[in-house]
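Troubleshooting: if your tokenizer reports a length mismatch, compare your output against this known-good record of 679 residues.
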Amino acid sequence: MTMGSNVSLAALSENVGSAIVSLGWSSPTGEGDADVSVLLLDAKGKVRSDADFYFYNNPVAADGSVQLLGKEPTADGSEDRISFDLTAVPADVERIVVAASRYEQARFAELDDLKVTLADAGGESLLRFVIDDPGPVSAIIFGELYRRAEDWKFRAVGQGYESGLAGLATDFGVDIEDDEADDETESGTAVAEEPAAVAVSDAPPQTTLEAVPAPRPPADEEAAPKKRTARPRTAKTKVTPPRAPVKSLAENESWKQARLFPVSALKSDRDREMRSTSVLLSVMAQVPRFGRRITAPFGAPSGRMETFTEVSLPHGDTPRRPDGIIRVERAGKLWTALVETKTNGNPLKSDQVQAYMDIAARRGYEAVITLSNDVALEGSPLVDVKIDRRRKHQVALWHLSWAEVAHQAQMLIRHEGVGNAARTWLLQDLLHYLQHENSGCHGFQNMGSAWVPVRNGISDETLCQGDPRALEVVESWERLIRQVCLRLGGELGQKVLPAQRARRGTDPGARRARLADQLCLEGRLQAELRVEGAPGLLTVNADLRTAKLRTSVEIPAPEQGYPLTWAKRLLRRLAEAPADLHVETLVEGETGGPRGTLERLRPEPADLLPKDSATRITGFRLSLFKSMGSGRGSAESGFIRSVDDAVHRFYTSVVVHLDAPASGRAAAAAAAAKERATV
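Known-good structure output:
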């Protein structure tokens, strides 16, 4: 592309629901670098709030639309990768600006090979824009994504800012707090042009995003001349395990492979907590990409990480010993989080977490991270703590499930790779440890004490609306679905998220109360999963009256062709699907059309067509039924295992055989053809 040109993403690929944008450069000295930033802009060309400004201290959007993935070495320098889920971008965001800035007095003219590339969800490179002469500027807008009707386009910009990141951010409506006077008082020198802090006006105090100044060399290195690198840095190879397992050299199956993290000696919950914390934190420090994946959602900067266990910290008369501490250094500034760990079904204790929050506030630490098998829900904290708003320094409280840890390890091991074979092996051993029955790190595994009474109350029709136990079951169901998404996404290497049909901004508590009333009346739990690349939402329905699980997906009817052709083609696509798959024709204005099992329909595809040829077919619904586990736990006969197995079976035996959803380009062409035919 050339400066100022633009292109429709749908014209380049049919797989642009998500995209990876990479900003690259090289340095003659091998030491030059820059930081990327992303701004979401409304129709007026301004950020809706300062939370729409993403950089290294605010790398991930809560809705998953933006995620800064960090730096990757390349053959001739390095590149920063940014993941965009364009389907999740809020409707009132019109443009997405992608920029980069340099530290202190550094300028982009000192870097070579400035470029931006964009790849689709399948990893195929779609476009490339090279900035030939950036000039003496300290910030550059490389390009921007913008909407045109339902289509996304990319524009090659290449605009520079001599005023740096502060000038760029201010132009788009970000509020910059100027700490120049304080810096001059403390250091007696002029400050950098970069913003001292980005204040989030409508967010709680702990989410203030502090920009980090340029790195300063240690005192003993300041006088030493910088060494030039002998050659350009080379790219790290992507290392993933072989798809087919290597044949073992063991004589028989009784020989157990030696493990770096053994689990046989774990005899108590305290042993499990200590071992699990040490194992996780050590791998985070030794595999930077994994450590970054874990800490980025909590606001940690990208930098050098060190982790510690069993540290004693003063607290009143008796010192406290958090299970772990994470510290990240960037440009001479430290980000610190205390870690409190639980394994098996052990709950977090409010007094413990409260003590760590108080310690962190007094010591100026940024966060407390709780880690357990439970899954945190929006608007429903796992522990109640009191936050003193009068304190100048506020501490953020975050929760992490062991299922999320396993998911991130699985994504890196199986699909994305890490820098070398040794790090891959470390992650594999961590994942083996987490999945072992002795570790106690199995994720959400108990529907709670309310499950059996609610199930029985629905069966004998004695459960009344307003019963608080129904709300407990709804919350457990939501946790289970979130974990199912993590497991399926880790296996597929694709984004899998729960789909909420509630309006944006709806109170989560009110939504769950409504679902609890619905459970009491209808006896059903339902959830929808959005799987990247699937033709529609994957629906999971648990009917507690019939003890049946139903997994289904609805496929829209093609815009062109004949109904009999649609039916035949669908059955051909499902040639390897289970014979007991139910296929139902969806028709306009009616509750349901013809239906039957795949086994019965294969020889007679015409049985899927309505008797009245004038009836319009809107799509097809595919469903599998399975007996529901009755137990509240995750044993083989439990409800949790049955839901997990049902979703996995439906996706791997049915959804994988279906066509991906039509791209924006194909949909537009079909709509135009239909309009011409009508005229």
